[in-house]
Structure to design on (396 residues):
């Protein structure tokens, strides 16, 4: 059996799996499908290791495949905990709802000592009240489910 | 290398266009055209590598490759996350078959047990939390499908042309000549080699992997123990007491 041809077959399958995983991770919006796409990229790496393992006639590639499987198990545990927490807090698996996870640590700049802020309060006409303003959080206003 | 380069560019265009057409957009259309285009592009890629072995071995290898890559395409283009998870299991089965073809029985069984038996079942459970049928907008619409498809196809084409050109050079992949072992057509098993390698040369790494798994478990417990504040909590949101003034901007 031609070693190089067999190796090329494995390399092609590994490359295709990795590239398709990249496409899935970039394009899909479901958290679970994104995680499974990352796993698909790892499958491509596993196929790659398997091909080189047979090409060299050693068992070192299988050792690395086992390490990948172990690291994947740890990653899946952490990812499951993160996804459960986020689903409980954001009520959904849409990744666009996670854009506000970071804290607002960028404070507005402090004005200088000599700088006096002009109070720009124009005198608007007073209008009669028609009802209580609804209390809609800003995140709901910015969430666009159809994008 | 002119003809392979032309084939490579054509294959990447076919793959990118097919993936773009097959990814969910939110509009109903005939998506099987996209799958046919992807299959054509990947078949063009596979026509550039030489065929190997006897007819039976070649057929087995081709079958398992088609199962793995086709399930991967079906996984990333399925708008229903439940079906996407099942197609991922099929792709793992194809990968395990390719491992089995190399005589790596233990690793193939470990891959099946860990991926399908543990990870996939766990995530199928999580999928029931939100929209398992794929009727919501975020499952039916992709995020920049054209850009993502082009990125994936260009990545596949560049990687393929890289190792193809390296194999075409005179001293490409000369490491096999150093080992000098004749590799038979059918590899029965190499589990004994794996055990020797794993526990004679990589013992410290196995311990490190065990520590990583333990830390992952602890990290998952810590993350679960500190839940986030709910963002869209309409039920317990108190009605504000102050009346808005007319000047409030």
């Amino acid at each position: 059996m031609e070693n190089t041809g067999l190796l090329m077959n494995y390399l092609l399958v590994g490359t295709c799996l990795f590239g398709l995983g990249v496409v899935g991770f970039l394009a899909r919006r479901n958290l679970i499908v994104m995680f499974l796409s990352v796993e698909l990229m790892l499958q491509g790496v596993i196929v790659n290791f398997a091909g080189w393992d047979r090409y060299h006639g050693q068992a070192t590639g299988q050792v690395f495949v086992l390490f990948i499987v172990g690291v994947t198990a740890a990653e899946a545990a952490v990812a499951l905990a993160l996804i459960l927490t986020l689903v409980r807090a954001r009520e959904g698996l849409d990744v666009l709802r996670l854009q506000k996870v970071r804290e607002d640590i960028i404070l507005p700049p402090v004005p200088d000592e000599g700088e006096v802020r002009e109070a720009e309060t124009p005198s608007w006409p007073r209008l009669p009240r028609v009802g209580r303003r609804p209390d809609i959080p800003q995140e709901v206003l910015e969430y666009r489910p159809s994008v | 290398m002119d003809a392979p380069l032309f084939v490579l560019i054509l294959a990447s265009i076919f793959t990118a266009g097919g993936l773009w057409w097959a990814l969910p957009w939110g509009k109903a259309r005939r998506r099987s055209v996209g799958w046919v285009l992807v299959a054509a592009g990947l078949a063009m890629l596979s026509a550039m590598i030489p065929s190997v072995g006897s007819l039976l071995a070649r057929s087995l290898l081709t079958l398992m490759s088609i199962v793995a890559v086709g399930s991967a395409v079906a996984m990333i283009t399925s708008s229903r996350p439940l079906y996407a998870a099942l197609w991922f299991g099929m792709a793992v089965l194809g990968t395990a078959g390719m491992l089995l073809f190399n005589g790596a029985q233990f690793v193939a069984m470990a891959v099946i047990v860990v991926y399908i038996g543990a990870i996939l079942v766990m995530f199928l459970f999580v999928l029931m939390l939100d929209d398992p049928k794929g009727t919501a907008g975020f499952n039916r619409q992709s995020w920049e499908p054209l850009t993502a498809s082009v990125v994936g196809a260009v990545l596949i084409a560049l990687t393929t042309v890289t190792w193809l050109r390296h194999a075409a050079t005179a001293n490409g992949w000369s490491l096999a000549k150093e080992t000098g072992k004749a590799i038979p057509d059918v590899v029965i098993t190499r589990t004994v080699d794996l055990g020797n390698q794993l526990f004679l040369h990589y013992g410290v790494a196995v311990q490190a992997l065990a520590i990583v798994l333990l830390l992952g478990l602890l990290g998952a417990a810590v993350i679960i123990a500190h839940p986030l504040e709910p963002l869209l909590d309409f039920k317990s949101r108190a009605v504000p007491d102050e009346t808005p003034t007319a000047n409030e901007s």
About this structure: Chain B has two domains: 2-168, 190-224.
